[in-house]
Here is the input.
Amino acid sequence: MLERRLLLVTGKGGTGKSAVAASLALAAGRRGLRVLALAMDDGAGLARHLRAAPPGPLPERIGDVAVARVDPGAALDQYLRLRIRVPRLPAVSRMFAAMAETVPGVRDTVMIGKVIFESTRSRWDVVVADAPPTGQVLSYLGAPATIAGLVPTGAVRDQARWMEATLRDPRHSAAIVVATPEDLPVIEAAGFAVDIARTGSIPLGAVVANRVLPAADFDEA
Here is the structure.
């Protein structure tokens, strides 16, 4: 599993996906891999399991793991400068910030694009993304296709297609779905697996059954 460059960890809220993401990142770090644990929310859950303060947008090293969170504003600025080659002008930044809040898929594309971008950088061997719950993450995974459908030509469309291809590459990316042995988490995990298989948005890497203890080995009296 850790041979892939991007592991996107999701699951129904409350199943422990942040704990699993932290565990994967720590396991990668112990193997000597250069790993970034990247939160797609405020990072509080991921930080708690790494025994650290909530992360900022810039990676900070905690033991064997670098930790950061995706800040939409900073990610948009980086995307415009490095990928679209837009000059850093206040008026331009305000225009694109307004688009991110109003045009379908733009904000989600910026968020997932930041995750994908980090996973392709030479400074990391693997990026473990603590992604939104399964009920929300599909909109992020489908956002590049939405943008590519809205923009017929140009750099934005090319970048959206690149994001799609990177997410779909089984050598690069995989989704890790976390569930607990309860009806709703299992149903939601199964539904997510069916959805990504149908859309081809990202390969399924593994399903993690969290909070499951091995059977006790007691001798009968």
